[in-house]
Amino acid sequence: MVADADLLAAPGDHRVTPAALLTGLLTHPYIKLLRYRDEGPAEGLASDGEPPRGWACLLPPDSEELRGLVYAYGSGGWTETGVPSTGAAYARGDARAAYGDRGAEAAADQRERDALAAGVATAVEADLFITERPYLFGERKIHISSVTLCRVPEALAMVGLYLRSQGEYVLWRAADGSGRLTSNEWLYYQIGAVALLPELWRWSGIRAAAPQQETPDALRGLNGALQLRVVRALRTRDSFHRALNLPQHRDAVRTVLVDLDTILVMLMGAVDASARFVHVLLAVQGDQRDAGWQKGGWRSRLAAHGQPLADLFGSGAPLSDVLTILSRLRNAVHGQAIQATMRQNGLVRDAPVTLPAEHESQVLASMDDLGGRAAWGAQQSAGGAVVFDPGQFVERLFPEVLRLLNAVMAATPPAYVGGQQPDPDSGPRWYSERNRLSVSWQLGF
Q1: Rounded to a whole number, what is the largest CA-CA distance in the chain?
Q2: Last residue of a domain, one of 128, 150, 180
């Protein structure tokens, strides 16, 4: 990896920030990091031209076609190569792109420096370039092949996924790599679920008003089921993204579809568990198996208790749209399976997922109400069917469902809530605020 050095934390930075965590993760032995700065490292090159360990350094220009580059990882010798000047020359003359708030010459200088930085990442064959340079992310920019550009939050998610894929579940790693805390796989995702459900404390210490002796046990079981399904959905989301980032051959696409089905089932299971929890807590008439936020009859019985919880899912309510998208696509497991179509466009191959025709209009209407179908990755294919990008869809769905679950918990009548919101660092040390932030950042939230 190559990173703009000024985005990373100082070695002695022990603050709980994304930059400090990312810097620590980049010291992991599975990762090779090169820092880069336009003006070079403060200490400069050694007398023999050797760069500081962990740095990539451009040499002064000595030809019109190639710019010299030297770099050295944390171990091993140093390497000398070159960066072609063509991209930098193009960027310098690209006057309509980026840095319009600067003078023409200063803007041209910065675009040239940005292009050279991208050339460095390409020359050392980096997988990721961690940067926030506006020109490289703009609509008009130079073409960068084989290198993924990431801002700090995106890099945290990518590095976190990579380490988890190697069986490394890192809760914290000091910016200089001197200290670290790891967990097992399931505890990691459990911490993530707790971090993403900040209203969970309302149900964890709840006391039931209903007199039945078995009620507290039933509530604990349903609360545990909700958490477990979120944990499983998060774990499956990792598998989903690993498959989605493979070349989209048929086996990878089949794995994506299996994981997508599982995510839909697990998230819908968490939502259903929340409805059953409310049913038992408030002693709603009827069997708890009839409980469901998507069921108008059950919501009517809930409303008869004078509870505003039912209004959260009324017609036109945002949470109702979330529920429509989730439930309609989850219901595909009862009928024709969700399908994906392989597409080839030059060297790019993808496999957009086709919306089930019987639910297409309802799902699209709800997407339109929740930021627009483009935000969900939906578009019309050349054949006329509506398809959606599975990765974009899943990344939009997760936060919406988490918002739904938190909203239900937050709307629990105060009379039933046990205790007070806990101190951020109270309880088991595994669930400290630092660990919750770390895991949620690494999961990409």
Answers
A1: 85
A2: 180
Q: Are residues 138 and 191 in the same domain?
A: no
Same structural domain for residues 59 and 162?
yes
**pLDDT tens track for 351-404:** 788 888 888 899 999 999 999 999 999 988 777 778 899 999 999 999 999 999
Judge whether 7 and 1 are in contact, CB under 8 Å: no
Task: Specify the pLDDT at position 418.
Answer: 65
pTM recorded for the entire structure: 0.91
Q: How far is CA 423 from CA 207, 403, 432, 441, 445, in A?
A: 20, 22, 9, 20, 22
230 Cβ partners below 8 Å, 6+ apart?
193, 196, 197, 266, 267, 270, 402, 405
Angle formed at CA 141 by CA 138 and CA 146, multiple of 5 degrees? 105
Band of pLDDT at residue 343, cut at 50, 70 and 90: low
Q: Are residues 174 and 191 in the same domain?
A: no
Q: Is 76 left (phi over 0), alpha (psi -120 to 50) or beta?
A: left
66-88 per-position pLDDT tens digit: 899 999 998 888 999 999 999 99
User: Cα 327–283–324 angle (5° rounding)?
Assistant: 10
Higher pLDDT, 95 or 206: 95
Beta carbons of 301 and 309 less than 8 angstroms apart:
no
Parallel, antiparallel or unpaired: strands 78-84 and 66-72? antiparallel
Mean pLDDT score, 144-154:
92
Are residues 106 and 240 part of one domain?
A: no
- DSSP 3-state assignment of 129? strand
Q: Looking at residue 211, what is its pLDDT?
A: 44
- Structural domains in the chain (count): 2
Inter-CA distances, 366 with 37, 295, 317, 322, 323, Å:
46, 17, 10, 7, 9
Q: Would the pLDDT of 213 be above 60?
A: no
> Looking at the structure, do residues 170 and 290 belong to the same domain, yes or no?
no
CA torsion through residues 298, 304, 307, 311, sign: positive
Same domain, 168 and 192: no
Owner of token pair 């997407």: 367
| DSSP character string of 337-380 | PPEE--EEETTEEE-PEEPPGGGHHHHHHHHHHTT-GGGGTEEE
Query: Do 381 and 406 fall into the same domain?
Result: yes
Question: In terms of residue numbers, what domain contains 325?
Answer: 185-442
- Boundary residue ending a domain (138, 155, 180): 180
Instruction: Based on the fold, state whether residues 162 and 243 are members of the same structural domain.
Output: no
Strands 128-130 and 353-354: unpaired
